[in-house]
Amino acid sequence: MATTLGTATSEFEKKDRVGDLDHRPRVLLGKMGLDGHDRGVKVIARALRDSGVHVIYSGLWQTPKSLAVSARDEDVDVVAASMMSNSHLSLGPRLIEQLGKMGRPDIPVQMGGILPQEDIPKLLEAGVSRCFTTGTGLVDVVEAVRSATRAHAVEVPGGNATAQLARDISRVHDGKGARPDTVLRKPTRVIGITGSPGAGKSTLVAQLVGEYTRRSEADPSLGLGRCAVVAFDPMSPITGGALLGDRLRVDFNSLGEKVFYRSLAIRGEDYASLGEIIGLIGGASEGADAFETVFVETVGAGQNETKIRDHVDTTAVVLTPGMGDAVQMDKAGILEIADLFVCNKADNPGENELVRDLRDIAGKRAIVETIATQSKGVPELLDALLA
Ligand code: B12
Question: How far does residue 38's CA lie from ligand 1's centre (Å)?
Answer without folding.
Answer: 8
